[in-house]
Design goal:
heterodimer; A: alpha+beta; 13 strands; elongated; B: alpha+beta; 13 helices; 12 strands
Chain lengths: ~375, ~375
């Protein structure tokens, strides 16, 4: 028998306990990874090809305050602006929605859309049909699948923010963006239904190059400074982070819960490990009597507890990795979460926690072994 | 014959190390569960505590909240002559047309969030007796003055009395703090309605709030507005309106339930481990009990009692820990208003009861298998065990 098999045999001697310990570590680490993934999803905006070029312009007062339509001509003339389109959140309720829209609808300028949402893929004839028909819309693949909609279908909405109930004909279905759920329709259709108020929700601007984007942002802000409708232009990333900051204490909350989970896990594992060692105190004393050094006994204990913790980490964190990679999270959560990606850092964190667990839970038993003399140990009965 | 409760109790005390670990483990699970549910309960409590039962709230049909609603002046001109609405001594209808504006402002920590400004009339203030001034004075119309919620003032920059902030091309001076007594008004800032409309260029109102003399008039008024096709308005009792504004609580409840279930699976494994070890260490003792004539059933019950007792202590620890947060003010973005809503953690008696029941269930589930195993030990073998 080599030392390795000795440790493994020892660890698995009480199979039930080994299984239960591994499973409780696994459950907790699964939870830890999952919380990290959710936190990342909520606080880290998605970066796709177009997002580094996109600039979002909203009213400085708040997102809910409209912008005057006349700003279009000014923005168009600003140096470094490649394209600009209104982007008005319509917020209509579709069938089955009681209080909240399950997907966003935006009023845009269809002619400039391809430049602004460059990731979207749509058949050419569908796009042209959309541009041609003022009451038509294009729809993201996920929403189309969810409601079983196809080109030519009609959709009716009850206006929640705007006093206008709109009906659209689906002209096309797009895919390929980071979030294929949204509906896009003609700003002119919304304007007409509202009696041409001369306002839009926000402007979406595409900068000519990534290097120029920060300057363009500044130029837009300056162009409307001290006007009756001051604006806040910011990169798409900053805009999304602004949303995240409104969640206030959610980050603290999830971090706090993660800490509690890790702590609970620590307690359990420490208690199990010390139970396992206490049980074979006499054996350890015999080993000592046979001439094994204290150091070697420590190594046995450490290897056993770390081994159990690592097995738990493999099942828990590895399981999370496999599960979140293989399921279509967009479908499973109805688009609430989009990526749900397990990063190497999270796996690293899970394994680091497991290692710490293994080390910490062997400290107690080690101290006990070190303190006890051979004779005392041999005398112990259980 | 049942084993005395003392037996279970003293057994738990003998192996105090693993007992403490189990108790704390279950305690933490209950703590997370109760704490998250108390957040959701706090949101619901604050909405449920808002409004006057004599008031009717009128918003645009289709709008789910006051802040997303737009109503024209013409509607006000018509509705104010409805005889269902109460009159004051001067014979005027007691109805107020308010306007709500979302404003993006910096918090004290430098991040930003939306704040709900309510342009309110003098009558609108009378209609909301829950709101009182706790510092400074009320605003004077036309002077760009504003009264902010005292609870928001602790979170937002420049919200102290005497300070000022800039928005919508105007500089507003904070002249007072209001307190909504734990209602949704604690998440609002009040200024003059007409001033608010002119600064933020709004010709439309957001909502009407009307006082009715009695319950009969209330249902008549609601029926009359809802059935009148000219209006496209929705009327409901103010209390009902606020009671349904609790969408923000739903995901928190969901998260709390989900975490509780997942963590409790881990806790059940841990409790099982402890109890298996406890049974293993007492094999001879259990054999002795059986020889003495105690039945299998008694042994199972004694062990289940032991597990339940441990878990209950854990549950109490968790609830006590969560209770430390009771009444603590926190905030998040409200889904309906799209603005910062302040509320307090509410550790309510039903939540505590749920937490304790939950703990006991975890304890019993963790003990059941080890207890059954103990009761099945062959008596002679068990007596031989060392």
């Amino acid at each position: 028998m080599t030392l390795g098999t000795f440790i493994i045999k020892n660890a698995l001697r009480n199979k039930r306990r080994a299984t239960l310990s591994i499973l409780s570590v696994a459950v907790s680490l699964f939870l830890l990874v999952m919380l990290q993934v959710a936190l990342r999803e909520l606080t880290n905006p998605i970066n796709d090809e177009g997002s580094s070029l996109r600039i979002i312009v909203r009213n400085k007062v708040s997102l809910a305050q409209p912008l005057p339509r006349r700003q279009l001509q000014v923005i168009e003339r600003i140096q470094g602006v490649a394209a600009v389109s209104p982007f008005t959140f319509y917020g209509g309720l579709y069938k089955g929605d009681e209080k909240f829209t399950s997907f966003a609808q935006f009023a845009v300028d269809p002619e400039r859309c391809p430049l602004l949402i460059s990731d979207a893929k749509i058949p050419k004839e569908q796009y042209e049909a959309w541009v041609a028909d003022r009451t038509s819309c294009i729809l993201g693949r996920l929403t189309a699948e969810r409601f079983g909609l196809k080109v030519g279908d009609r959709m009716q909405f009850t206006g929640q923010i705007y006093p206008a109930d709109l009906e659209f004909m689906v002209a096309g279905i797009y895919h390929g963006t980071a979030d294929d759920r949204n509906l896009m329709f003609h700003q002119s259709y919304l304007d007409e239904s509202l009696g041409n108020p001369g306002t839009v929700g926000t402007w979406w601007v595409r900068a000519a190059s990534i290097d120029e984007a920060p300057m363009v942002t500044e130029r837009i802000n300056n162009a409307f400074a001290n006007s009756s409708a001051e604006v806040r232009a910011e990169s798409e990333r900053a805009f999304v982070l602004g949303f995240v900051s409104m969640w206030a204490n959610i980050k603290t909350l999830i971090t706090g819960i993660s800490v509690v989970v890790v702590f609970a896990l620590l307690l359990v594992t420490v208690s199990t490990m010390s139970m396992a060692i206490r049980e074979r105190f006499r054996e350890l004393a015999i080993l000592k009597a046979l001439g094994f050094r204290r150091r070697e006994l420590f190594a046995f204990i450490l290897a056993e507890s770390c081994g159990l913790a690592m097995a738990g980490a493999l099942i828990g964190a590895g399981g999370a990795w496999v599960v979140f990679h293989s399921i279509d999270i967009q479908k499973a959560t109805n688009g609430l979460f989009i990526l749900f990606e397990v990063t190497p850092q999270m796996m690293g964190l899970a394994f680091a926690v497991a290692t710490a667990l293994g080390v910490l839970s062997s400290v107690g038993p080690m101290l006990a072994v070190a303190r006890t003399s051979v004779v005392q140990g041999l005398r112990t009965l259980d | 014959m049942a084993l005395p409760i003392k037996y279970s109790f003293r057994n738990a005390l003998v192996r105090w190390r693993s007992t403490i670990a189990t108790v704390l483990g279950i305690g933490l699970v209950v703590f997370v569960f109760v704490l998250l549910q108390s957040l959701a309960a706090g949101i619901e409590k604050s909405s449920g505590n808002t409004g006057d039962p004599r008031n009717v709230m009128i918003v645009r049909k289709g709008s789910t909240s006051e802040s997303a609603s737009l109503i024209s002046r013409d509607n006000l001109r018509e509705i104010r002559y409805f005889e269902e609405i109460a009159r004051n001594e001067q014979g005027e209808a007691v109805i107020s047309a308010d306007v709500l504006v979302l404003v993006n402002l910096p918090r004290r920590d430098g991040t930003e969030a939306n704040v709900l400004l309510r342009g309110v009339t003098a009558r609108g203030m009378e209609l909301r007796p829950q709101v009182e001034l706790v510092a400074g004075r009320w605003f004077r119309p036309g002077m760009r003055e504003i009264v902010v919620s005292a609870k928001l003032a602790r979170r937002f920059a420049n919200f102290d009395v005497g300070q000022s902030f800039r928005t919508g091309n105007s500089t507003f001076t904070v002249v007072g703090w209001l307190d909504g007594q734990g209602s949704a008004f604690d998440s609002e800032c009040w200024l003059d309605a007409d001033e608010c409309r002119s600064v933020f260029e709004r010709d439309m109102y957001s909502s009407f709030l009307a006082r009715v003399p009695d319950a009969g008039a209330m249902s008549n008024l609601i029926a009359r507005i809802e059935s009148d096709r000219r209006f496209k308005l929705k009327a409901e009792s103010e209390v009902e309106y606020y009671r349904s504004q609790t969408m923000t609580a739903a995901p928190i409840r969901w998260l709390g339930g989900f975490l509780a279930i997942t963590m409790s699976i881990g806790a059940v494994f841990a409790a099982m481990n402890t109890m298996y070890a406890a049974v293993g260490a007492r094999t001879r003792e259990i054999g002795t009990l059986r020889v003495l004539g105690y039945r299998r059933r008694s042994v199972v019950i004694a062990l289940l009692l032991e597990g339940a007792m441990l878990a209950l202590v854990g549950g109490v620890v968790g609830c006590v820990a969560a209770y430390q947060w009771n009444g603590y003010t926190t905030a998040t973005m409200g889904f309906e208003t799209f603005s910062e809503i302040v509320f307090q953690f509410a550790v309510t008696p039903p939540l505590v009861a749920q937490g304790l029941v939950f703990a006991v269930v975890v304890g019993i589930m963790g003990t059941l298998l080890p207890a059954i195993r103990a009761s099945r030990l062959p008596v002679i073998e068990a007596l031989k065990a060392i």
